[in-house]
Amino acid sequence: MAVTLRSEHACFGGTVGFYSHESAVTGTEMNFSVFLPPHARSGAQPAALPTLTYLAGLTCTEETFMIKAGAQRLAADYGLMLVCPDTSPRRVAPAEQDGDWDFGSGAGFYLDATVEPWSRHFRMYSYVTQELPALIAAEFPADPARQSIFGHSMGGHGALISALKNPGTYRSVSAFAPIAAPLRCPWGEKAFTGYLGEDRSAWTAYDASELVKQAEERLPLLIDQGSDDQFLETQLNPELFEAACAEAGHPLELRRQPGYDHGYYFISTFMADHLAHHAKALGLI
Question: For residues 151 and 56, is the Cβ–Cβ distance under 8 A?
């Protein structure tokens, strides 16, 4: 599986690299970024590193997290590899790109579309949970047995469903301001209708508030939500996920952060807590 290095940058003793490859899952070129901590350079054969995958939100790319989140310094200290895929396929036919900022390019919603023309390429769920981890394990010094996942907004939704649908794959999960009940918000209804069709019963396979009710394992689960988030009342519904976790007996640490909004100032403020959450589950602290 050929991987092309597009650029590489020294960062806290390690490197941030931006890569592309031809994806068999999406049928397109896909981009992703990787932070390799200094541990990756130690010795001729570096030890396999635990991996933390970050799923970004609407309109973002594989660059957003690496530039804005401020995660590399702590990841360097922990010896933790960070992986961030793009949020959707790019360079597809015009009919398969967009029309709106919250659907199509930059808005793959981390699901496998079943409706044409989106089903041809928009298969981010399989890409994130299957193809990308296999590629990382093959091309980088990763330990496939030690993986965790987190994300923001649409990516928080993606992290939650990826963890809940794949028991035994991830050691922990966390999210910043996730779209926690997409069946019951405008963003989710628009995406699910466009990608999955009108049958709402098919949507439950990608709704964390539904999936947690049948969860087969109890992962460490942390969510931070800003109280001044402009999307809190209309799109995010953390209280619905909180109620679903309580009903299912699934532990959840949901922290409501006064004064914080939806952006990366919020994310960077609490990034250290999330990395510590995952480092503990991955046996790094």
Answer: yes
Q: In what order do the strands lie in the sheet with 49-55?
A: 3-11, 14-22, 29-36, 81-85, 49-55, 142-152, 173-176, 221-226, 253-257
DSSP 113-161: --STTGGGT-BHHHIIIIIHHHHHHHHSSEEEEEEEEEEETHHHHHHHH
Are the C-beta atoms of residues 174 and 199 closer than 8 Å to each other? no
Point out the residues of the chain with pLDDT beneath 70. 1, 41-46, 93-99
Would you state the structure tokens that stand for residue 269, as one six-digit string? Answer: 């403020």
pLDDT score, position 96: 59
pLDDT score at 47: 75
Pairing of strands 49-55, 173-176: unpaired
Quick one: pLDDT at residue 100? 83
Taking residue 166's Cβ as centre, other Cβ atoms within 10 Å add up to: 17
137 burial (CB, 10 Å; 0-12 / 13-18 / 19+) is: middle
Residues marked active site are found at 153, 229, 262
Q: What is the DSSP letter of 96?
A: G
Q: pTM of whole model > 0.90?
A: yes
**Rounded-to-integer distance, Cα 227 and Cα 255, Å:** 10
